[in-house]
Amino acid sequence: MAMTDTGFKKGFLWGGATAANQLEGAFDVAGKGLSTADMIRFVPKEERNGYSMDVKADYIEGVLAGKIKDRFPKRTAIDFYHRYKEDMALFAEMGFKTLRISIHWARIFPNGDDQQPNEAGLKFYDDLFDEMLKYGIEPLVTLSHYETPLELTRKYNGWHNRKLIGFYTRYAETVFTRYKNKVKYWLTFNEINVITHSPYTGGGVLVENVPDKTFEQVAYQAAHHQFVASSLATKLAHEIIPGVQVGCMLARMTTYPVTNHPDDILLAQNHNDMNLFFTDVQVRGEYPKLMERYFEENDIVIEKKIGDDEIIKQYPVDFISFSYYMSISVTTQGEKESVLGNMVKNSVKNPHLETSDWGWQIDPKGLRYTLQDFHNRYGKPLFIVENGLGAHDKVEEDGSIHDPYRVDYLRQHIEQMKEAVKYGVDLLGYTAWGPIDLISVSTNEMSKRYGFIYVDQDDEGNGTLARSKKDSFYWYKKVIETNGDDLS
């Protein structure tokens, strides 16, 4: 494929990334079942202890907890379900080439284990894809993005139970068959490594329901079931959809040593290897040796069925997608100032980096390093499917929203993408996270805004939901028009 002056391919897929549970709302409309995301209630900042992905379910035997007084933001989100045509027109105005969405599994199979799909749910995504394609926006679709049908948690304890492989492949075959002429790019699981940080978020697993097993034993067993399911879904996609491309998706937490002490070097290497274990399995098709040692040293036994390893080996993904928001620093050399890191404990401050409003360290060159490291390790096409800045935005009296901090963040990261492409990285596209303000996955806040489009709603759910354009809207439109050439 021809390259432009920027180094990006002609046809480079610029766009934005979303998730159904943070966007759609309409949690009880047209036959949709409850999902795990629907059960995460809003906890005000002053009652939270930091910002953690380790969320828990908020239900008792399927009865909605706190039905009167509590608020569950992902149930209403920003009402994309009813407003998608308005939002798609705005994305088209920016010139989006692609939009990453997820299908809400419980909208298709309300209980997860249903024998037949919900036609109303299938129809919604038919209409959504048609609207996208009308504007020439390529759908990039995640099958499972932190939204496991709740009944699969209640009845089977989520992905800890091997039965979910069959339920998932039935769901995958259903949507592949339905949308085979509309969707070319698919991702099997969002940030698949999150299952070992927050099993409930990543796989609908309640570890406390397996009291005779350790946290890691439960989490890594669930991860194995997802690996098998991902491979089987990849197989089905290639059988059903002509020219399909299936990717894995990793929350990439590139880790640096704080010092050049050999112990720091080895610690950082271990963090990176543990993070990349998930892509090792999905790209190389086998468990790396380091995990055999880790499992042995931590008394973790992965229960496999005959044929599991062969399935994983035979059906690797076609490309690697990942999220990148920050880098992580670790050390063995005494006490250091800690910083907040998405899903990472014991990360320490890097004095060379600035931090966001939420304490995440901003490291554009880390994205270049990450891309080049992926390229050298795997040699596969890459896709940046999440990157962005969560920040407080202010609406001026005239309605304008000036967000130079967001433009600066994105500009610096795109500049480093250019350098990586010149290095030889095969980069398919870039979807900025949260092109429209949506509900935070980790904190359920609305005030943690990523979008180019402002949504009038506060943390308590008050507001008109009216959409308005931020300064970054016009900047990103220019970036796309010039294929990344004009970043001014």
TrEMBL record:
GO terms for cellular component: cytosol. Keywords: Glycosidase, Hydrolase. One of its GO terms (molecular function) is beta-glucosidase activity. The active site is at residue 386. It holds the Pfam family Glyco_hydro_1. InterPro entries: GH, GH_1_N_CS, Glyco_hydro_1, Glyco_hydro_1_AS. One of its GO terms (biological process) is carbohydrate catabolic process. The keyword Hydrolase applies. Belongs to the glycosyl hydrolase 1 family. This is 6-phospho-beta-glucosidase. It comes from Peribacillus simplex.
